[in-house]
Amino acid sequence: MPDLRGGIDLGGTKIQTAIVDANGEVKGESRRQTPTSGGPPEIAEQMAAALTEAAEQAGVETSALAGVGVGSPGDADEKPGVVSSARNLPGWEGSFPLAETLQKALGTQVKLGNDVQVATEAEFHLGAGREFKSLIGVFWGTGVGGGLVLDGKPWLGRGAAGEIGHVVVQRGGAKCTCGRRGCMEAYAGRMAMEAEARRQHEEGTKTDLFKLMEKHDKPRLTSGIWERALDQGDKLATELLDRAIGALGTGIASSVNLIDPEAIVIGGGLGIRFGDRFMEPLTEEMGKHLFVDERPPAVRVATLGDLGGAIGASLLVAR
Length: 319
Fold this sequence. Notes:
Elements: E1 5-10, E2 14-20, E3 26-33, H1 39-58, E4 68-72, E5 75-77, E6 82-84, E7 95-96, H2 98-106, E8 110-114, H3 115-126, E9 135-140, E10 144-150, E11 153-154, H4 185-188, H5 190-202, H6 209-215, H7 223-231, H8 235-259, E12 263-267, H9 269-274, H10 279-289, E13 298-301, H11 308-314
Parallel strand pairs: 1-4, 4-8, 9-12, 12-13
Antiparallel strand pairs: 1-2, 2-3, 5-6, 6-7, 9-10, 10-11
Helix pairs in contact: 1-2, 3-11, 8-10
């Protein structure tokens, strides 16, 4: 069925897959947790298994697909099909030939792209960004990723454009997973928030975050755990989420000052979970730092939900 293509959204906590037709309609889907051990080979195996499950739901063999697109964190180099520097993926050290590995497992061509860029393009074509010609995608999840569409076209720079999570919001500030200090991601990324919550908890700060994590049998502080803690009035959860919103607002505003887009689309696990809830404080924080504050960009929450990244990845096949 040449009109069907696969999409895989590889994240730090989950692998979301979808089988998508030429109109962007999802015909099958599957989701698995990203392995916490085993490194790239184990992650690739679970990616192939999840895509196969989605294809079975759609009634098609993976080898019959027009191709499969993969949205991956880190440096996803499309030509050699290699993913490097994927620091938000457990045990991912160095470079790994992801496209070749998946092609052997799935029996069809595989194309790689940056996870947030392809999700941003999906929202631009099919979701919250359809009414705009230029936008920044801000995907708030395990880390904070960004994507750019300018004048209706994806902007990749020399291959690494859109890394909004590494806009510095506090010079000499918190240590980031990239090895530098003061990045937005060091304050707003789920991984960084969990590390800070754990540090403060070990130093005696009271919180129910980790009790909730154990109660709900989660290996990490997921967006759902943060929401439950917030709903229960957990002081530490509230403080760390407020800190995250402050960093997001500052970093997004600085990026807006540079390229002046029509819109910001907020996605990712935390972004979709909290986008509407924190919209007012986020836009207020942005307003403090916008140079042209009387004409702020529109801010929208991503509408394609958890499937946005996989749908966007599938677009790589047709690119």
